[in-house]
Amino acid sequence: RFMNKRNIILDCDPGHDDAIAIMLAGKSDLINLLGITVVGGNQTLEKTGRNTLNLCQYLDIDVPVCLGSANPLVKILEVCPQIHGESGLDGFDFPDLTIDYHNQNGINFIVETILKSKEKVTVVTTGPMTNLALAIRLEPKIMDNIDEVLLMGGSYTNGNVTPAAEFNIYSDPEAAFIVFNSGLPVKMFGLDVTRKVMVYESVIERMEKLNNKASLLFSKLMKVFNENQYRTFGLEAGPLHDPLPIAYLLDESVVELSWVHCDIDISRGDSYGRTNCDIFDYMKLPKNTFVATKVDVNKYWDIIEQGIKNYN
Ligand code: RIB
Ligand code: CA
Question: Structure pTM?
Answer without folding.
Answer: 0.98
